[in-house]
């Protein structure tokens, strides 16, 4: 079977909330009792739960970061763990001056959240996302240059909400690099061997984020039905890839006529799923799909897709990425 270039998204209930929530109360667009007649859109009750609203904000930060990286390298694969990046930024904001805190909060969409205990809520979010059944390991760390002085009041709330302590560089790049990579190996239980090949030069604050996820299909594919098939990267480039297939796959499926793509959601263990966006035509650019990604859009997809039985063929996935996000993060919400 022919397969086109696709975009995929890992979706977990804890990244957009702790579970599904049915709509209740006035319908969107209904008239408010004391309004002047203008329709008022009700907020989805799902997003009224503090941890859900925070998760949606972090997700939107992730989509912004993804679009930034995709725009920088349009033909390259993009693999990100926005949670670990957002966690490091959110933790840093605890000790930031007002202007820097405001910049970080805008990038993380915190300025749209009315939550006086946002860091306490973040602790709950981390506990849910990294629960053992999720099969996700994520860790973040703030590393300071030796000459910087850290406020003593910064450390207790950092430990309380984010479970980490800041690290001070020794000034010896070889020793610092070894210590950082040892920390990564310990946090990831040996699943990730290092976070960086060399220490960045001339840094004052080094935000380190690392993640490892190993998904398990709820219904496993029969390895005997995996074969090399064509995968279309674009209208000109085709490669052979191992393609897993299931003639009677049960999945959630929909067709988005506005984006001109098929959408398939496959369940993984731990109340997690993976969403595939497949353009209808090989020549179609993924930009329109990428620009549409928001936490609200993904929440709507999760509610609207229908369970079907279908012939399914998808590439066998093993993705890894190592890179510096300094420039991309700096350009967000400036």
TrEMBL record:
<dbReference type="GO" id="GO:0004867">
    <property type="term" value="F:serine-type endopeptidase inhibitor activity"/>
</dbReference>
<dbReference type="Pfam" id="PF00079">
    <property type="entry name" value="Serpin"/>
</dbReference>
<dbReference type="GO" id="GO:0016525">
    <property type="term" value="P:negative regulation of angiogenesis"/>
</dbReference>
<keyword id="KW-0732">Signal</keyword>
<dbReference type="InterPro" id="IPR042185">
    <property type="entry name" value="Serpin_sf_2"/>
</dbReference>
<dbReference type="InterPro" id="IPR000215">
    <property type="entry name" value="Serpin_fam"/>
</dbReference>
<dbReference type="GO" id="GO:0005615">
    <property type="term" value="C:extracellular space"/>
</dbReference>
<protein>
    <submittedName>
        <fullName>SERPINF1</fullName>
    </submittedName>
</protein>
<feature type="signal peptide">
    <location>
        <begin position="1"/>
        <end position="21"/>
    </location>
</feature>
<keyword id="KW-0325">Glycoprotein</keyword>
<keyword id="KW-0964">Secreted</keyword>
<dbReference type="InterPro" id="IPR036186">
    <property type="entry name" value="Serpin_sf"/>
</dbReference>
<comment type="similarity">
    <text>Belongs to the serpin family.</text>
</comment>
<feature type="domain" description="Serpin">
    <location>
        <begin position="63"/>
        <end position="334"/>
    </location>
</feature>
<dbReference type="InterPro" id="IPR042178">
    <property type="entry name" value="Serpin_sf_1"/>
</dbReference>
<dbReference type="InterPro" id="IPR023796">
    <property type="entry name" value="Serpin_dom"/>
</dbReference>
